[in-house]
Amino acid sequence: MTVHPTVEELLQRREQGHSLEAPLYTRADVFDLDMDVIFRRHWIFVGVEPDVPEPGDCMTVEVGASSVLILRGEDMQIHAFHNVCRHRGARLVTAEKATIGNIVCRYHGWTYGETGALLFAEHMGPEFDTSCHGLKPVHLRTLAGLIFICLAAEAPDDFDRMAETIAPYIGPHDIANSKVAYSYDLIEEGNWKLTMENNRECYHCAGNHPELTIPLQAYGFGFAPDELDAFHRADAASYEGAQASASARWTEMGLPSAEREELLNATGFRAERLVLSGAGESHTLDTRRACGKLMADFTQADLGALSFWTQPNSWHHFMADHAVTFMVMPLAPNRTLVRTKWLVHKDAAEGRDYDLENLIRVWTATNQQDADLVALTHGGVSEPAYEPGPYSRFTEGLVEKFCQWYVARMSRHLLDAALRMPAGAPVAAE
Amino acid sequence: MTVHPTVEELLQRREQGHSLEAPLYTRADVFDLDMDVIFRRHWIFVGVEPDVPEPGDCMTVEVGASSVLILRGEDMQIHAFHNVCRHRGARLVTAEKATIGNIVCRYHGWTYGETGALLFAEHMGPEFDTSCHGLKPVHLRTLAGLIFICLAAEAPDDFDRMAETIAPYIGPHDIANSKVAYSYDLIEEGNWKLTMENNRECYHCAGNHPELTIPLQAYGFGFAPDELDAFHRADAASYEGAQASASARWTEMGLPSAEREELLNATGFRAERLVLSGAGESHTLDTRRACGKLMADFTQADLGALSFWTQPNSWHHFMADHAVTFMVMPLAPNRTLVRTKWLVHKDAAEGRDYDLENLIRVWTATNQQDADLVALTHGGVSEPAYEPGPYSRFTEGLVEKFCQWYVARMSRHLLDAALRMPAGAPVAAE
Amino acid sequence: MTVHPTVEELLQRREQGHSLEAPLYTRADVFDLDMDVIFRRHWIFVGVEPDVPEPGDCMTVEVGASSVLILRGEDMQIHAFHNVCRHRGARLVTAEKATIGNIVCRYHGWTYGETGALLFAEHMGPEFDTSCHGLKPVHLRTLAGLIFICLAAEAPDDFDRMAETIAPYIGPHDIANSKVAYSYDLIEEGNWKLTMENNRECYHCAGNHPELTIPLQAYGFGFAPDELDAFHRADAASYEGAQASASARWTEMGLPSAEREELLNATGFRAERLVLSGAGESHTLDTRRACGKLMADFTQADLGALSFWTQPNSWHHFMADHAVTFMVMPLAPNRTLVRTKWLVHKDAAEGRDYDLENLIRVWTATNQQDADLVALTHGGVSEPAYEPGPYSRFTEGLVEKFCQWYVARMSRHLLDAALRMPAGAPVAAE
């Protein structure tokens, strides 16, 4: 009875400056396309070099129905493969992290080397050609210690553009010489796009994030100037002054801070370093460093917070003492994984250099608050009476850019894909 | 391979006097239509005035994916709104019951008044028109203290017919001056129509409801006269005599008791007051009042039980000392919520005037027995070998009327809806 | 965007000697067809005569949405019915096993006799014809104590072929005079065809089944001769000698052992009796009998293991002291029930004649190991990068035959069914 609009119609008729129509958040066919178009054909953030510090260290990452095996080889290069045996399809590595020699399938013992070549397969007879049965590779790139993969046969060609622009910002924090102090997975009961939209504004911060707003200043995220009274106008001006003088100081230290934003690229990104309140050192309750041993070779702690956002699925905050990375991974139309990792200098010792609870307190609290908001919103947009509402042009501009990016990427690939893909063809690189 | 009959075909070929074909109980597309046609376009029972006794009291009711916010205003009027913020769609109130001032969205602080008007929205700039962003209203009517809502833009116009006919029956029990002594939710593992069919006959009572059959007499629900032996014939005649003399007595007291039945109206209903066994006072194990303080201004307790049934989703029993209301709400093709509330005079005190366990014992036991029967039947009708079986024309006449009503309402609206509804149009009133 | 291949296309283009394409393991529509074509139109193994040893003993078996009631009558015949009341469809018996007199529906008391005839139905009036409302029968056959049913109106006509061939093999173990010492259900997180494929090869045994490989010799399941070194070649030759001499001995005792294989029949099967290692008596850790009281009238325990495999859903091992039967029942595209039963002589007493833990140890361990492998494989074949891999022609020949049978039966019935089935027609026998 109800005629469902097609995904193409929903994308085409999207009203700018407004939240998306409900089916784009809730429908199973849209979710499947999101996984296929957004998460299989774009560069997605999946982890950090310190996840696999030594040769033989590997980790697995689930992207929809796919499992990707990420492995550091003897030559310190990081390789990525589809985590599936070429014999009868068994998963090869099931642990999230492990250290291995060769990759041996548990089912019938097929054995692959670190480059994915099939080294050994019993009972297959003399005519069997092992060279046709190596593991299928997955594109992998690193950016100043952050690991990105792309599951498409042909990855978007603008990764370098992002890497060149952003490496000077993140590089000084020397992520490759850090370690993962803590990592945890939070499942949000909402669509992944609501998770991303929530991340792209701080309009909701004052009312919902008592811990996060101690070091953060709302002005950094935009405001409606007409709404400010004399007091807040002075406050905003003082914030701008502090940001300008800090930027000048950081520039001298070789730490770029100016906003760089190319959010509408296939590999969309944005970065800027913002001054923090109080002591200005870190995302902590007292605004001071959580880790006594600073990252890289830093000698000063008041470096503010360098933030780095990517489309479609990550954001990161780099401070003098630690960094926090966030990976978003859709699990279902109404379930989204947020994996958060805290990085400190690799020589920092828990107990001596940092108190773990203090290190993670602000973002574990903030993540849970955001998860509650996402669940609240997913519940509401699932409601037949919901209709897209207006974004604030002052404080929700990046939300709008996320939606624009999403609509553009989906529209582009839906067309391309319809023209090029034979039925049932595997999407992965060969 | 299997060609699935359409809903229209299933409705059209329904064999009168027989249970429905399996897909009408089990198929997901039928369930979606049930929610859309039956539960969004008809008057449904959702609660009682004592659920929101004071100004600022509100409750939320879930109807499929919709959440409805029911709120008593300062003027004591009860309003109903779609429980979804006009900004980015967050749910406004999540508790089942709460007392609030204005309605404030937790996400970004948008604030609505008790009539739904948007009073305040930060950061939206001077050009933003709050008057276009009020909460969307939902139709609400009360009948002698019972609250009904309709989610359609245009509600069925025969609510008054039911209200005029039934108010004289229920009115004397003065529900507005009662309180909810107890409420609980039971989830039945079966389709909602099986829950309703089970409610519409007492053929199963003798074999399944040892507590309920103490005050109830099966004869009140029909019987096959040819099957009665001399003993039971005399018994039935004596029951008819008792009913006639009680009715005469109740009429003198201003308590109508004669059967009124208009079950095939869009807003279908049926009511009658039946004599109870034993002391004749209440649905209790000893057939005596459970609450010493009687409802309204009653001075006599032997008022039998006034029963009120509605299509599609409620039944109610009003006695001198207490009333019980039942709301049915489909959750999934095979899951149905039954919410039961016990009402007593608002001045009755637990412990002094009533023992809660005694008050609720008969219906908590009976509900669980019915839930078991519904689960047993849902399991069976899901079976490919199931075929519709015959209803008894003596004791399952109201089941047949429920099915007739269902088939007629669905058929009518499927046609209307196909003609009128643009794709994706919100169903709700504007 | 992605064009899904139809089931017909997937079957037609299946590459011989390779595992199936992913959708045949994972897609919901394929699963539904598997249930309809394979599990409702073929003879499936569901239990053993000792499950219902006495008149009035019954058991229920779930096959997809169907429940089948299997009942031994006063005349010792075993009957099978659809377990659904002809009145309003309630399930009649819900326990897995029970002992009953007549079959009485709990809902409204309709009562059926042991042949399925409706004996009694209250309130239905004089014109109601009970003879049209008996329980619907299900085809049932026994083979040397094993119970098979077929839910189709017309069952495959080659059951006799299997029974005649196999009865001489199993008959001597006298299953009808055994008892079920233990039964348990294991749910494997994978498609039922992966469960079956896993059962049809021992290529994986050496690496995964430390308990099972004590009595078993891999050579019995094939090997690649070119891969054997001098030592293993001698080992294989010695195994062949042992098998030959044991076979000669068994033949004298009236115990056939030669391989019989008709796996591609509609009712496909295979049997052979293989010598066991060590003491050669049983599937135990010490290769000796687990039950002191031998089955049937056996006086010798070194009878090796008679194995019997059927398409689509069972395998069985019969030794001198006990037998083990395995029933596979699909629950969902990615969930499969494996029900295992251990049978011993009906006069054997636990504690005296056998230690239960010792009796069941090998196969409870092996089943769990197999379940892990099936889950691992289901995870992998669900992966977009999965593509069918090659089977070993030496050790995976029976896997290939299972796939060939599956593809042939599906293709045949898809065609037949499309031609013959009216929409919505019940599949069951009338």
UniProtKB/TrEMBL annotation, chains A, B, C:
PROSITE patterns the record matches: RIESKE
Domain Rieske: residue ranges: 43-149
SUPFAM superfamilies named in the record: Bet v1-like, ISP domain
GO molecular function: 2 iron, 2 sulfur cluster binding; iron ion binding; oxidoreductase activity
UniProt cross-references to CDD domains, sorted A to Z: RHO_alpha_C_GbcA-like, Rieske_RO_Alpha_N
InterPro entries with a match to the protein in the record: Rieske_2Fe-2S, Rieske_2Fe-2S_sf, Ring_hydroxy_dOase_asu_C_dom, Rng_hydr_dOase-A
Cofactor(s) this protein requires: Fe cation
Listed name of the protein: Rieske 2Fe-2S family protein
Species this protein is from: Breoghania corrubedonensis
